[in-house]
Amino acid sequence: MTLAHKTPQVTLEPAFTPEGGKLLPQPLRHLRDIRSKALTEMVLPNRRTENWKYSSKYLKLDESLAPLTQGSGMAVGRAVEGAYRVVIRNGVVDRESSVLPDQKGVEIQRFTDLDEVTAQSVARKLDTVIDNSTTQIAALNTARIEDGLLIRVAPDTSVDHPIYVQCVTDAQQSGSNYPRVLVEAGNGSKMTLVEEYLCEGDEPVLVDAVTEMTLDSNANVTYIRLCMEPDNVRHVGATGVRMADGANLDSHAIGFGGDLRRHDLQVRLEGENGFARLNGIALTQNRQHFDNHTAIEHVVPHCDSEETYRCLAGDKSHAVFNGRIHIHKDAQQSHADMNNKNLLLSTNAEIDTKPELEIYADDVTCTHGATVGQLDETALFYLMARGVDRQTAASMLSMAFVHELVGQVPLEDVREVVDVRLNQFIEASFKETNA
């Protein structure tokens, strides 16, 4: 008789739940304390945790990551023209480096500056959009917040410029930080939000980022998330969106791999005639890892969703896509499409994809599809027959594979930044392949 092998349970180090948040208003400090106590001896995800089975081995929350990252006096982020800019540095809003709007109907505040009434309202709303039972590590964000960002757009207000939230980490020493954003888009409002994650320094650090958004009736939000950090950053992010009737979400998530990249995007269509478009790109090379988990909940009838994610993996890297669409029993006349295409740039790379449809209504139109493959030899031959060398041809085809989605990003500044990194990625990937 043999005993079944059991995966050892690893619990969260006590150093990750210290006292803190002294500058927060009392309601938020109280919420932080409650969440911190709830995480005492929390069991970390392991390979038997279904939605972490590919990523748990990269998590490695050792005690050296527990202290908060500290500023070093280095440059903060990058300049952005024609936009509002909010810098969150090491989890704390940096007002001096930020350019905030003075437009009527647009309110941007630090959590630490909130009055008691607003702080109570924010405390009631935090953790109500994200499903912590599936994201796990997102719960740690609330237990460690030192500050946060509240963005409110009044009804029938169109924000006249994009709002860039640049989350910058100083990595001259090991540690962690916990950026938090809460967005409230009023009835008929319109805004573009860009989240950009950056890092200065090369010591191992953890970034645990959470964004929650509520879109009231007929609100229109374009959400762009750029994960641009270097290899030394273990990035675990979660975004939750709750949508009322007629609301529209246009999401673009673009990320480059590292020691660990994980993003959970959860969208709930809770009002009729809502529409959500989710586009995503993940790129990995060397021994990098990137895990995208998405969930779209069609809760009510007459809502549409479209989802397109693409992954490129080179060398010995690993990319994961897990997309789930849940059509609730009352969500008749739902239309949902999911498509995931993946391209292996090396025979040693790995991509795991798992599209899921869970349907409890009978009058719906739902499709999903996923492919994993390598570059088309016929297409390569076609280009080479016209005088293009093999490496250049492979680079052109790889660029075309993702550039269709890059081209749908509505901000030229973002497209330019992504194109630069994308060209560097493609060039490095084929140098490795041909080495």
Quick overview:
By secondary structure, this protein is of the alpha/beta class. It is built from eight helices and 20 strands.
Secondary-structure blueprint of this entry?
Blueprint: H1 26-38, H2 56-59, E1 84-89, E2 92-99, E3 106-110, H3 116-125, H4 132-135, H5 138-144, E4 149-153, E5 163-170, E6 175-177, E7 180-185, E8 190-200, E9 205-215, E10 220-227, E11 233-243, E12 248-256, E13 260-269, E14 275-284, E15 289-298, E16 304-313, E17 318-327, E18 335-344, E19 350-359, E20 365-374, H6 377-384, H7 390-406, H8 412-434
Parallel strand pairs: 1-5, 4-7, 5-8, 6-9, 7-9, 8-10, 9-11, 10-12, 11-13, 12-14, 13-15, 14-16, 15-17, 16-18, 17-19, 18-20
Antiparallel strand pairs: 1-2, 3-4
Helix pairs in contact: 1-3, 1-5, 6-7, 7-8
Keywords:
single chain, Fe-S_cluster_assembly_SufBD, alpha/beta, SUF_FeS_clus_asmbl_SufBD_core
Describe this structure in words.
It comes from Halospina denitrificans. This is Iron-regulated ABC transporter permease protein SufD. InterPro entries: Fe-S_cluster_assembly_SufBD, SUF_FeS_clus_asmbl_SufBD_core, SUF_FeS_clus_asmbl_SufBD_sf, SUF_FeS_clus_asmbl_SufD. The protein has a domain of 258 residues. 20% of the residues lie in helices and 39% in strands. The chain contains 8 helices and 20 strands. A hairpin with a 2-residue loop joins strand 1 and strand 2. The model has no long low-confidence stretch (mean pLDDT 93).
Oligomer: single chain
Shape: globular
Q: Report the sheet-strand fraction.
A: 35-45%
- The helix/strand series, from N terminus to C terminus, equals HHEEEHHHEEEEEEEEEEEEEEEEEHHH
Q: Tally of extended strands?
A: 20
- Which bin fits the share of residues in helices? 10-25%
Domain SUF system FeS cluster assembly SufBD core: 173-401
Protein name: Iron-regulated ABC transporter permease protein SufD
Pfam family, one: SUFBD_core
InterPro entries: Fe-S_cluster_assembly_SufBD, SUF_FeS_clus_asmbl_SufBD_core, SUF_FeS_clus_asmbl_SufBD_sf, SUF_FeS_clus_asmbl_SufD
